[in-house]
Amino acid sequence: MPSYTVTVATGSQWFAGTDDYIYLSLIGSAGCSEKHLLDKAFYNDFERGAVDSYDVTVDEELGEIQLVKIEKRKYWLHDDWYLKYITLKTPHGDYIEFPCYRWITGEGEIVLRDGRAKLARDDQIHLLKQHRRKELEARQKQYRWMEWNPGFPLSIDAKCHKDLPRDIQFDSEKGVDFVLNYSKAMENLFINRFMHMFQSSWNDFADFEKIFVKISNTISERVKNHWQEDLMFGYQFLNGCNPVLIKRCTELPQKLPVTTEMVECSLERNLSLEQEVQEGNIFIVDYELLDGIDANKTDPCTHQFLAAPICLLYKNLANKIVPIAIQLNQAPGEKNPIFLPSDAKYDWLLAKIWVRSSDFHVHQTITHLLRTHLVSEVFGIAMYRQLPAVHPIFKLLVAHVRFTIAINTKAREQLICEYGLFDKANATGGGGHVQMVQRAVQDLTYSSLCFPEAIKARGMDSTEDIPYYFYRDDGLLVWEAIQSFTSEVVGIYYEDDQVVVEDQELQDFVRDVYVYGMRGRKASGFPKSIKSREKLSEYLTVVIFTASAQHAAVNFGQYDWCSWIPNAPPTMRAPPPTAKGVVTIEQIVDTLPDRGRSCWHLGAVWALSQFQENELFLGMYPEEHFIEKPVKEAMIRFRKNLEAIVSVIAERNKNKKLPYYYLSPDRIPNSVAI
Prior knowledge:
- It contains 20 helices and 16 strands.
- It is found in: Cytoplasm, Cytosol; Cytoplasm, Perinuclear region; Nucleus intermembrane space; Nucleus matrix.
- It holds the Pfam family Lipoxygenase.
- It is an enzyme of class 1 (oxidoreductase).
């Protein structure tokens, strides 16, 4: 009688093993086997991290094995099991791999196909077509769209983490409990004694050092020592944690009535301001999005305030970017003066602090939350709904949506919900952050997620003109490496453009993103369909780059740039000044966050800047969804390209007082998971 050797690999994460009964059935082209109990006498089967082998004898020849069915039945109590893969050695000595990488819960069962990636057109056998269809029908019942707030990109239909499908939950929910992590961060930073001291002001700037953890030779220490300087202020627009707002100014806006006379002491080329604009030396950052947003009113004992500044910047003769004019609100007028470097020291300093605070709000809510977290969740949900596990695009993308839906669900449960942690320290808490996302969604476009296009659209693409824009330089290297990799994978499975057009599952995935994620907005520029291999490669690059590199660039520098509170105040406790010559140091300190809010802010930026335990970085694919040699070779080339980029960045950073390393591939996690 024919005999098969079945090798079963159990996951190594916590609670992956099971004591339940595991049964296996083989389904072949010539027949099906009986249900076999996988069990060895006097042996603890399916322990965490174990690889167990079993001999399975069948009554008759089964032909080519098409499916493997695994059933789990209760032994004592329901015991979830994480199955990594099954390998089958046939009676003829052939090996067939069946990747799984899923949880089997309750009295569950799972039917697996072998690991070769297949498009729908490759499946001619009715049984395999049916398996493909049933998998998507089941997933579409599990992964449902929901509107969390009007106007937001749609998210997963789950009120809390435990409502999520088991396959996308965190291995340990405790590890991503925001309340626990923020409190733990404050404890680790030895600042928990201040965490309840709301309404209690600091005495002066030096007093903030009581909650500042001095780590020598770090960016955070350099920020603390140089934050008041114009050079440090300007540098952050290029290489801080929000390097996406600065634009080349091609025409001075009417709402900022700045003149050459006002700024001539800052101009170094003996040109008028208009001539400097024409020469391409003037840059602008406009926080118009914040105009009219409601400030946080959740604490009746503390008034909190927002501004919507416009900041004009200048490229000096050393090619460094420095501020030359700041207007703190949008409408010009007598009570909205334009602050200048030539003004009194504290007037100018407070104007810059207001810009830094506004930048913090846009960074947290738009650059970080909307444009990486929420967008990546849309890609993830659409992928699970429309691409079966055997589809090559599912196999390519699944590592890049790992834990994204889970972290966003936890955020909606604890962080950005009504009365959530976000309300504790942020002036945009209490609903302002929701208004901001609702506005910013209108400007969320496909081209703005295509990194080279986004850089070019802001007039920031010239390395000769703007030589110290490391976010741009490193981002382009990583984008090109990802695009080269996705092009290879697309070329393996799609022999020409027509195959792309005819791949209905792929088209449904793209359409889901457009209809539900982008809410069918034509102005978003998101494609409704994809008609060429080149466009498919670009689309996949957008998905992977957004989830990995873009998120890394705007997330993991938060402690570096925001831990010195005056450099990134999460709230301001007095309105913007309406006149010059009246600001004092005492007034600035009373405007900055109180002790309690400072501590919650510090706990947040510390916790958000930490990598996950067992983090998977870009190019690491420990789950072998692909089994074909050409794809594995493409992955090796991808990793080599990324290693070369790591070396280039490390060489550039040598001896730099302010190294830029957020886009070094060895520091870029594969997915948005924190």
